[in-house]
Amino acid sequence: MHLKKYIGDRAFYKMALTVALPIMLQNFITNLVSMLDNLMVGAVGTEQMSGVSIVNQLVFVFNLAVFGAMGGIGIFTAQFFGRRDHDGVRYTLRCKLCASLLIFAAATVILLVWQEPLISLFLHDAENVGSVELTMGYAKEYLAVILLGLAPFAFSQAFASSLRETGDTFTPMLTGIVAVAVNCVFNWLLIFGHWGFPQMGVRGAAAATVLSRYVEFAVITVYAFAKRQRFPYMKGLFRGFSVPRGVLASIIKKGLPLLFNEIFWSAGMSTLGVAYSLHGLSVVAGHSISSTVTNLFYIAFLSLGVSIGIISGNLLGAGKHEEAVDAVRKMIAFSLFASVVMGVILFAFGGEIPKLYKTSEESKELAAYFIRVCACISPFVAFSNAGYFTLRSGGKTLITSLFDSGTLWALYVPVAFGLYYLFHLPIRAVFPLVQCVECIKAVVAYVLVKKKVWVRTII
Q1: What's the angle, vertex CA 161, arms to CA 407 and CA 83, rounded to 5?
Q2: Distances (CA, A) of 375 to 230, 291, 297, 304, 357
Q3: In sequence order, which residues have a C-beta less than 8 Å from that of residue 261 and are 6 or more positions away?
Q4: In the chain, what is the straight-line distance between the N-terminal and C-terminal CA atoms, in Å?
Q5: 204 in Cβ contact with 187 (< 8 Å)
Q6: Could you give the C-alpha distances from 401 to 12, 68, 95, 116, 387, in angstroms and in order?
Q7: Residue 300's closest CA among 60, 17, 6, 4?
Q8: Could you list the pLDDT tens digit for every one of the 459 residues in the chain?
Q9: CB of 8 within 8 A of CB of 330?
Q10: What are the phi and psi torsion angles at 446 (to 5°)?
Q11: 411 in Cβ contact with 437 (< 8 Å)
């Protein structure tokens, strides 16, 4: 009888999967192509793959800043839509576009002015695997091109996130599929120079990514404006760009903590990458491979976490608090079940994927080891992720920030550096000990969700 609280009926899972499956499919294809990208760049050489991996960690901070801004404002989008307030949704989309412009401008200046010092953070002569100078050159080469794709990425996320929060998860999935298909095809053409295209190496990988960003932006914006009857908030979007002062103040108050959280979290993850890079370039390559493979298997429960935020936000916006609590409880249980299944598969088969890469044997062995560690910790990651989106759906962005980026900087980063500098432990000991910190984060998530601090309507 007690277990029934955590298990939904057929209608519940149909509703949940209607939201979650398009997100899962989009993320699956995106991560699969990311893995293929790594394979193709890795076929060129270890220094090339390490250089691209380093730049991607820097761009990751930009991506997460965009997601943070869209997520913070999206709390209001979901709740306005739950109340069928299309004017409110329109105001939030305007705020998203302005935030995208500001983040793009700031990131471009930072990456142009401080590119060499930032890249140097990840380069250490800890071993005789790969050349630091060559890696720096390839990283700068890749970054020079990838900067051209920051703007279309930011603006496409503004439209895509609004479509998801207003019930259309299919269109962002479809545009994402088109984008990754373009990326994959042109990676093959431009990295290796097939079918008469120039052989551009890492610059080809960057050019393919930039092209895919522009295609994604063009497709999703054209669709959103063409379907204005279906999305009433698109009507008059650029007819004036004003936002009521009260709405803007609430968005800033609730959204800024989440924006800063994503910036600090992504910066923390990059700093964690710096800590791992102290062990050598083979670790940089191995960690890049393992992250790509692990993300591919984590998609099921991470996408369910995003769905929790959307479903809970819509219910809270409609004032259906008890329904929101029930939905979250069942969705978290579903997410945990998915994490156990995917964790077992990842542990059993994930370690074989690094063998496909044309990089050093040490990097392959480390990647396989990292993957198995991540497989064991996946249920804790699932619960933390579900807790994050649950708290966010009720506007508890400050608590969310402390829970998310706060634990990263207070626990993960000091542990990673401390184990290296103070105890001189090898990476095979450092990595699992750092990952075990996720258990503490999961306990905190459980306490906060159970206390129902997130159950509130904020519009």
Answers
A1: 100
A2: 42, 11, 9, 18, 20
A3: 68, 397, 400, 401, 404, 405
A4: 36
A5: yes
A6: 30, 10, 20, 30, 12
A7: 17
A8: 467 788 878 888 888 888 888 777 767 766 666 666 667 776 777 777 778 878 887 887 888 788 888 888 888 888 888 888 888 888 888 989 999 999 999 999 999 999 888 888 877 655 545 577 888 888 898 899 999 999 999 999 999 989 988 888 788 888 888 888 898 899 889 988 889 888 888 888 889 989 999 999 999 999 988 888 888 888 888 887 777 888 888 888 877 777 788 788 878 888 888 899 888 878 888 888 898 889 888 888 888 888 888 888 888 888 888 888 888 899 999 999 999 999 999 999 888 888 887 777 888 899 999 999 999 999 999 999 998 888 888 777 778 878 888 888 999 999 999 999 999 999 999 999 999 989 998 998 899 888 888 888 776
A9: yes
A10: -60, -45
A11: yes
Dist. CA 242–CA 231, nearest whole Å: 19
Give me 294's structure tokens.
């692990």
CA quadruple 388, 275, 294, 442: dihedral, nearest 10 = -30
Please state, in angstroms and rounded to a whole number, the distance separating the CA atoms of residues 409 and 172: 32
CA dihedral sign of residues 322, 438, 277, 31? negative
197: left (phi over 0), alpha (psi -120 to 50) or beta: beta
pTM, two decimals, is: 0.73
Q: Which two tokens stand for residue 422?
A: 């103070």
The label of the residue with tokens 């991470």 reads 302
Query: How far from chain centre, in Å, is Cα 168?
Result: 19
Token pair listed for 46: 């270890």
